Amino acid sequence: MTDSKSRWMVFAFGVAVLATSVACGNASGSLSPTGPSASGSGGAMISGRVRGLSTPITADSFAPLATSSVRVTITGTNISSTVDGAGQFTLTGVPPGNVTLQFTGPGVSASITLTGVTADQQITIDVTLNGSSARLNSENRRNGGHEIEGHITAIDSGARTTTVGGSVIAVPAGTKIRRGDTTMTFADLKVGTEVEVETTMNGTTLTATEVKIDDDKDDDGRDGLTEVSGAVSGLSGSCPTITFVVRDRTIVTTGNTRFDLGCDKIKNTVRIEAKGALAANGALMATSVELDD
């Protein structure tokens, strides 16, 4: 009887220890250790550029999306963003851990995983998509404040918001806006202007703390024209009126454009230099186009 009672006490003690272990394990990590952990306020910011999809890819070009129909989602969360027409996206409030980005859209279903994401990081990536595959071309991380860099694609003067890299950013009165050492105003922000925006999350609103306008002058600083160089993609139209993309900038030529190489020499993947003025929609109205040596 005594031996039976002793065995029963040992068994009960073992069950209690096992239950305690399971409970502690669940308390410390109810989510998979390889997935993003639960996040409170804040979180990391992941912004990036999507290349590829439907046209030939070179190191310095990407095919812009015909429509904003590709979406990127953080697996296991409701965090997602539409990839804009310039191939850019931004995700905010990303929980720490190993994070999988799922890209979905017409003809696209691919994913990449970023390991070791921390809540205070700003991560910038460059991704090439090709159907069910995704290649991470580059990844840059920094801690602290979040910076969004890109061209302004929309402005709401009444709400004092701008859209950069697919993110709507509030620009409160009093936000520092500058070009170099020159103080600018909200009215100086135009669609197509390239900016670097320091941001913070104010509740659920992405808010600018500083806006730096990139100087559009040439290297000699004299004519104020914008110059873009790189490989041609997305070529359409017929000479001399053609449209193509270099990097993330749409280039438009007219009968007044000077072609140092001949308009018929412009082909997809050929590297060129284009110079011109920015239109209100952000396109570069080329005054000259030449081969990029």
What does it look like?
- By secondary structure, this protein is mainly β.
- It folds into three domains: 100 residues, Immunoglobulin-like; 68 residues, OB fold (Dihydrolipoamide Acetyltransferase, E2P) (Beta Barrel); 66 residues, Nucleic acid-binding proteins (OB fold (Dihydrolipoamide Acetyltransferase, E2P)).
- Helices cover 9% and strands 50% of the residues.
- It is built from one helix and 21 strands.
- The chain has a seven-stranded mixed sheet, with no helix packed on it.
- The longest helix is centred in the first third of the chain and has 27 residues.
- About 18% of the residues have low confidence.
Question: Key features?
Answer:
single chain, mainly beta, Immunoglobulin-like, OB fold (Dihydrolipoamide Acetyltransferase, E2P), seven-stranded mixed sheet, 1 helix, 50% strand
Tally of strands: 21
Give the helix level as a range of percent.
under 10%
CATH architecture of the largest domain: Sandwich
Count the DSSP helices. Answer: 1
Number of domains: 3
Strand order, biggest sheet? 11-10-9-14-15-12-13
**Nearest-angstrom radius of gyration?**
25 Å
Strand content: over 45%
Average of pLDDT: 76
Q: Determine and state the CATH class of the largest domain.
A: Mainly Beta
Task: Could you tell me the CATH topology label of the largest domain.
Answer: Immunoglobulin-like
Largest sheet: 7 strands, mixed
* Structural class assignment: mainly beta
Give the end-to-end Cα distance, rounded to a whole number of Å.
Answer: 96 Å
Shape: globular
Low-confidence stretches: 10-35, 37-41, 54-67, 216-223
Order of helices and strands: HEEEEEEEEEEEEEEEEEEEEE
